[in-house]
Here is the input.
Amino acid sequence: MPSAKCTLRQIRNSLIVVSLLTLSLPCQAGGNAQAEVEIFKFQFTPQEITVKPGTTIRWTNKEKRQYHSVWFEQAGDPEAAYFFPGETYERTFDIPGVYPYHCGPHPKMTGIVRVE
Ligand SMILES: [Cu+2]
Here is the structure.
């Protein structure tokens, strides 16, 4: 039969777990992205995304072992850093327009961001 002490400890441990989860979520979210694109099997999904000005989009690499990049070359961005499975890339779009992008090491991987 569990003692009151034991039960309290279990409750406390549960609260610690909940606190840790709460604390770690904003870190995993990595800022305030409002839209998501997944990268898997050499594809951006969704391939085309429409957002409002001021939106931050987050790309997440969901591959098993392949790195990628998200490069807005036509917008004049410098070549973007590669990011690895489990890592993310974020970019904020303030000005309405059409922003095509591609993966640096795999130029056939393309996507479009529409800001309107
Ligand atoms: Cu790639």
In short: The beta strands are 35-40, 43-45, 48-51, 55-61, 88-93, 97-102, 110-115. Helices lie at 4-29. The chain is about 20% helix and 35% strand. Confidence is low (pLDDT under 50) at residues 16-30.
